[in-house]
């Protein structure tokens, strides 16, 4: 009888240990690299994407995932390179525990925050993307990505960026190209991830600041073609519009309108030449709507 009781206790303890391992806050789901197959069904319907994470001697990236619900939720994070293929990275959590893989399961208790600090890209890429999936009823979570600039071991600045749900149409502001105080050239960097299963084309239009209602029509429009499924465009405003200084003329400000054939997750950061200072730039998603008078207008997310 005593042996049977002891055996039952041992089995219960083992079950408890296994359950704890399976329900860990962070689990390595896969270490595979190469071709990426998007999840199907409900998991493909709830998606948030961090388009760019720099991990090198000058820049470090971290992701904060917060559960906004009063219940436990499960999220999967897949790491992709710029071409949309699975890539491996080494990450640390807030308790300094190390995880290595290409896909991770995150289990968050009510209102919990998990911090993922990216330490190294193990497959040789210069930067990564992170795709987050959850079930329909597990969509109540938020993602903030922080970018920290370094000189040696000294951190110069950190900027945080909120990750919104992707969409096909969005606006990004354009700042003055020469800073009026530092007199340094300023530029804006963008990462655009195609979150769909099909190739994506975008029409990009440059508008001025709209003084006296002058920006009803764009100054110029270009086509940004063939961003592959899961792939991204990474560049600056001068890559899209090399003559932007001449196009905007005396107006120091303006904005870019992106109209894409697929849903896109966009990130924008501002820089100055010769410094590590950066700031995040809002990305405003919208849809087109018709007024009672038949006029086409932009309808922005609330």
From TrEMBL:
Domain of life: Bacteria
Alphabetized UniProt keyword annotations: Signal
Signal peptide: 1-23
Name of the protein in question: Secreted protein
């Amino acid at each position: 009888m005593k042996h049977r009781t002891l055996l039952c206790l041992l089995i219960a303890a083992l079950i408890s240990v296994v359950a704890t391992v399976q329900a860990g806050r962070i689990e390595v789901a896969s270490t595979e690299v190469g071709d990426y197959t998007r999840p199907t069904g409900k998991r493909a319907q709830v998606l948030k994407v961090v388009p760019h994470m720099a991990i090198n001697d000058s820049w470090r990236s971290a992701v904060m995932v917060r559960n906004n619900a009063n219940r436990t939720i499960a999220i999967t994070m897949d790491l992709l390179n710029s071409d949309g293929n699975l890539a491996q990275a080494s990450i640390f959590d807030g308790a300094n525990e190390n995880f290595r893989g290409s896909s991770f399961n995150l289990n968050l208790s009510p209102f919990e925050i998990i911090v993922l600090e990216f330490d190294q890209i193990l497959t040789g890429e210069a930067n990564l993307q992170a795709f987050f999936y959850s079930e329909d009823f597990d969509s109540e979570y938020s993602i903030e990505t922080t970018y920290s600039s370094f000189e040696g071991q000294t951190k110069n600045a950190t900027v945080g960026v909120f990750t919104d749900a992707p969409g096909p149409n969005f606006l990004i502001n354009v700042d003055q190209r020469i800073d009026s105080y530092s007199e340094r050239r300023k530029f804006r960097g963008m990462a655009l991830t195609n979150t769909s299963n099909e190739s994506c084309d975008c029409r990009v239009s440059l508008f001025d600041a709209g003084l006296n209602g002058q920006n009803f029509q764009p100054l110029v429009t270009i086509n940004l073609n063939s961003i592959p499924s899961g792939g991204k465009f990474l560049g600056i405003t001068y890559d899209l519009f090399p003559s932007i200084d001449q196009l905007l003329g005396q107006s120091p400000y303006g904005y870019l309108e992106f109209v894409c054939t697929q849903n896109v997750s966009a990130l924008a950061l501002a820089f100055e030449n010769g410094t590590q200072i950066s700031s995040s730039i809002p990305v405003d998603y919208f849809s087109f709507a018709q007024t009672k008078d038949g006029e086409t207008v932009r309808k922005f997310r609330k």
